[in-house]
Design goal:
CATH architecture of chain B: 3-Layer(aba) Sandwich
Structural class of chain B: alpha+beta
Strand order of the largest sheet of chain B: 2-1-3-4
Largest interface: A-B, 22 and 19 residues
Oligomer: heterodimer
Distance between the termini of chain A: 22 Å
Order of helices and strands of chain A: HHHHHHHHHHHHHHHH
Radius of gyration of chain A: 22 Å
Radius of gyration of chain B: 11 Å
Low-confidence stretches of chain A: none
Order of helices and strands of chain B: EHEHEEH
Strand content of chain B: 15-25%
Strand content of chain A: under 5%
Mean pLDDT of chain A: 81
Low-confidence stretches of chain B: none
CATH class of chain B: Alpha Beta
Helix content of chain B: 25-40%
Structural class of chain A: mainly alpha
Number of helices of chain A: 16
Number of domains of chain A: 1
Number of domains of chain B: 1
Largest sheet of chain B: 4 strands, mixed
Largest sheet of chain A: none
Chain lengths: ~350, ~80
């Protein structure tokens, strides 16, 4: 079905616009038309369908579910819910405090917050459309593992010591009262939603998300198209293709000052991979761009001391590098198609 | 007179929520106080996890999105 977009791009770029497929500008424009139309189509379709399905999901329920699990399962579910629960970065503070004041360990909350920007339906849809399901699956597994391991390391270092006072007190209070309570925590009653309400919710979501990300798609695909047309095939493969160890930290640091969400980066990484940049290096770059964003960190400053922020930052960077190295080492066996 | 508190750390949606409550109150000829609450400790006390949220006279009535016209009208007239 997706071949339709290739044909459309061929018709528009080479037919109507009269560009020559043998030129750099020709292939760049073709790439740009194909990817923007394909991505926007997939996004509109998937955001709507997924929003319909999760209209009834609410954070109180998610929190109660995580609370009912043991410690290890808590990390896994924290990260898993981070992947499926949408929330805008302006909600991260209330969410953080909501979890903390319910006595959920800091590492589990952070597993949620680490994973959330890396994995979301938009990222998954785009990866699937551009790079295929094997790559998408690997991305999801790696993203979740990075979140889970990051959370565990944070807890094993006793990160909650460095929460801001009011947050630390709320956490302590919740832990003290936890064993006095018996049974399930009370949940506010929710009535079931009618289809019309779900449709309304999904429509609003669609408008909101597409309104926010369409320019990222254009910028991302624009850069990707430039790389596609102007970087010679195999340039990365010739220069960095053997997965030199330093290429991974270099990619992580190159990604840091670039603030983007997954939507903008994925078309770029598609081009990088096709041009022969090792998969691990590319993923390290992608995660660093998406997950370690300065606006997010400045917001977390309201509930964390500088020390804790710095610790989280270092754990994240270390995580991305390990991911890059491991994937580079094993990719010859798993990503034979690239 | 009703007091509306808009809970949120200052994103665009919170501003929009405050604006639409003020506008609809105006249309109905009501005087209300609309305050923006951005202090995370205070938001935590209200046990709100998704913002923007709205509290009327100290009770949370809504959270997680910009409330619709019907809802706002109900809070104002009830």
């Amino acid at each position: 079905m997706l071949a339709l977009f290739t044909e459309f791009a061929t018709w528009l770029a080479y037919g109507i616009l009269g560009l020559d497929p043998a030129t750099r500008i020709g292939t760049s424009v073709h790439f740009f038309i194909e990817d923007t139309t394909k991505i926007l189509f997939l996004l509109v379709l998937m955001i709507y369908v997924i929003a319909l399905a999760r209209a009834a999901l609410d954070l109180e329920r998610v929190r109660a579910y995580i609370q009912s699990k043991n410690r290890f399962a808590g990390y896994v579910f924290g990260s898993g819910f981070g992947a499926v629960t949408p929330f805008c970065s302006c909600s991260s503070i209330p969410l953080f405090l909501g979890f903390t004041s319910a006595g959920i360990p800091l590492g589990i909350t952070m597993a949620f917050l680490f994973t959330s920007p890396i994995i979301n339906e938009v990222a998954v849809v785009m990866l699937w459309g551009l790079l295929g399901w094997e790559f998408t699956l690997a991305y999801v597994v790696i993203g979740m593992t990075a979140g889970i391991v990051g959370g565990m390391i944070l807890d094993s270092l006793g990160g909650e010591r460095w929460l801001k006072d009011f947050a630390a007190k709320a956490y302590q209070k919740a832990k003290d009262t936890a064993h006095e309570q018996s049974g399930d925590p009370e949940l506010p009653k929710r009535r079931t939603m009618s289809f019309a309400e779900r449709h309304q919710f999904a429509k609003e979501e669609l408008k909101d998300i597409v309104g926010r990300i369409w320019k990222w798609v254009l910028i991302g695909v624009g850069i990707g198209a430039g790389l596609h047309g102007f970087v010679p095939d195999g340039w990365f493969a010739d220069n960095l293709g053997s997965g030199q160890w330093w290429s991974v930290p270099a990619a992580v640091f190159a990604g840091l000052p670039l603030y983007s969400n997954a939507t903008g980066v994925i078309p770029v990484i598609e081009s990088l991979i096709v041009k022969g940049l090792p998969v691990g290096t590319t993923l390290a770059f992608c995660m660093s761009t998406v997950a370690a964003s300065f606006p997010e960190f400045i917001m977390l400053k309201q509930v964390m001391t500088f020390r804790l922020l710095a610790l989280i930052f270092v754990i994240l960077l270390a995580n991305f590098m390990v991911v890059g190295w491991v994937i580079n080492a094993i990719s010859p066996w798993i990503f034979t198609g690239f | 007179m009703k007091t509306f508190e808009i809970l949120g750390t200052g994103c665009k949606k919170c501003v929009k929520t405050a604006e639409s409550i003020e506008r609809i109150a105006d249309e109905l000829g009501q005087t209300v106080t609309v305050e923006k609450v951005t202090d995370p400790a205070k938001i935590m006390e209200y046990q709100v996890m998704s913002t923007p949220a709205v509290a009327v006279d100290g009770n949370v009535v809504h959270s997680g999105s910009i409330p619709g016209r019907d809802e706002i009208t109900r809070w104002l007239t009830s």
